[in-house]
From TrEMBL:
<feature type="domain" description="Solute-binding protein family 3/N-terminal">
    <location>
        <begin position="79"/>
        <end position="278"/>
    </location>
</feature>
<dbReference type="Pfam" id="PF00497">
    <property type="entry name" value="SBP_bac_3"/>
</dbReference>
<feature type="signal peptide">
    <location>
        <begin position="1"/>
        <end position="34"/>
    </location>
</feature>
<dbReference type="InterPro" id="IPR001638">
    <property type="entry name" value="Solute-binding_3/MltF_N"/>
</dbReference>
<protein>
    <submittedName>
        <fullName>L-cystine-binding protein FliY</fullName>
    </submittedName>
</protein>
<keyword id="KW-0732">Signal</keyword>
Amino acid sequence: MTQIRGPGAKAHAGWLNRAAVAFVLSAFTVTAFAASDFGKCEVTGEKGSVKLTTVVPGALSVRPVLGVPGWWNGDSLDTIKDGFEYCMAANMAYRAGLDRVILVSRSFQQILTGQSQGFDIALSEITITDARKKVVNFTEPYFDSDQGILVKAGTKVDKKSLGTLRYAVERGTTAYDYIVEKIKPAEQPKVFNDPPSMYTALAAGQVDAVIYDTPNVLLRAKNSNGALEVAGRFDTGEKWGGLVNKDSPNLAAFNQLIEGLRKDGTLARLTSKYLTPELGMDPTKLPVLTP
């Protein structure tokens, strides 16, 4: 290695220092850019306009749902990069001054206990009910939903046949009580741990109908290549809200964020971009079946 001596040594040292500083700044810039991760979502609004206290500094940890295209596009937590609820979470994170969204796996039953930890909010198509509000807190509603009736194409579904069908419902959802109390079928509904299990049972002929949120079963029918159809819906007047634990310090802030997303048209834009093309039709046009 050549050793520099004399006046040139000082100049060379100064150049090295400047180069080192430039390298560090460049590396910092790249790191800062890489740290902001909102998937494929467009984020808008004023960054940092709302304050959230999150379990992971700089990130919004969200409990999603797998197997519901349009809401969460992807087959695993690692592959989901957009969808209505994902991009809703991304916009909430951005407006709270956070740099990314972290998806956290928790079962539906876990989060309903109010004891599950390690997430800030569940955006999981969860219906707001008085019974659930005794255990957890809900944000203001961000979507209206009824219960759709998913069947194999050609299955006869009308007021007379409702009591003869074998139903599938997800554990812990409002659909079970509705079927048992309102429809009173000859056979008790079969309870499953997640939507994919219900759809598998329907395909295998173990049940005749899956009762689940109307937007979700419309998505499933549209992607079934004609094998499935949504025969109608039960007008239950249900609304979805974000779920947080009772000890969460963020409920008011989440409500502020959701109200902002509604007022500036972000929720409407997300509906047009992710839901309308996926659903294949307006859910309100489905026939309402009254038990």
